[in-house]
Design a protein that fits this description.
Blueprint lengths: L3 E6 L6 H10 L5 E7 L11 H11 L7 E6 L3 H7 L4 E6 L3 H16 L4 E6 L9 H9 L10 H14 L1
Parallel strand pairs: 1-2, 1-4, 2-3, 4-5
The structure holds 4'-phosphopantetheine (PNS).
Length: 164
């Protein structure tokens, strides 16, 4: 049976840190489902779920069908079960991530004890890369080259040009 993991997140936009985690996950499991979260009622995201998926696809050209892209709404553990997976992958950066991640992992385990969260450390180069900061810097015209792929930089510029 194929070992399948779910890699959930906002990915608004995908960064090199997220891309690094997906590549690392593929060394452990057969399939990774990149699950982009969305909220049909109150969408606070800059990019639509499809745009976020397209940005991953544009970058992860070598992974073939071992990476599956999807979006979900609702409880993550329900989605994981629906996808017949038992592993959630989360990236861990600096210590500041730990509290939030620990809380989520334990809550998820409380709801579904059969699902394990596995934390992967991002590469050192991506330790401080956060989509939230990338967006903020980009919204003020700052330089985010090297934090996200060039095609993502372009999309960010287009979004903020439209939004101003
Ligand atoms: O990239 P993010 O924003 O840190 O990802 C957070 C995400 C999507 C993993 C988390 O918000 C989530 O799991 N949302 C789905 C709703 C849910 O299950 N909430 C309870 C978590 S204990």
């Amino acid at each position: 049976m194929k070992r399948r993991a779910i890699y959930p997140g906002s990915f608004d936009p995908p960064t090199y840190g997220h891309i690094d985690i997906i590549r690392r996950s593929l060394q452990m499991v057969d399939e990774v489902v990149v699950a982009v979260v969305y909220n049909p009622q109150k969408d606070n995201f800059l990019f639509t779920p499809q745009e976020r998926i397209d940005m991953f696809k544009e970058e992860l050209t070598e992974v073939g069908d071992r990476v599956i892209y999807d979006h979900f709404y609702g409880l993550l553990v329900d989605y994981v079960e629906q996808k017949e997976a038992t592993i959630i992958i989360r990236g861990l950066r600096a210590v500041s991530d730990f509290d939030y991640e620990f809380q989520m992992a334990l809550m998820n385990r409380r709801m579904k004890p059969g699902i394990e969260t596995i934390f992967l450390m991002t590469g050192a180069a991506h330790f401080y890369t956060a989509a939230r900061l990338v967006k903020e810097i980009s919204s003020f015209g700052g330089n985010v080259d090297g934090l996200v792929p060039a095609h993502v930089v372009k999309r960010l510029k287009e979004k903020f040009a439209k939004n101003t």
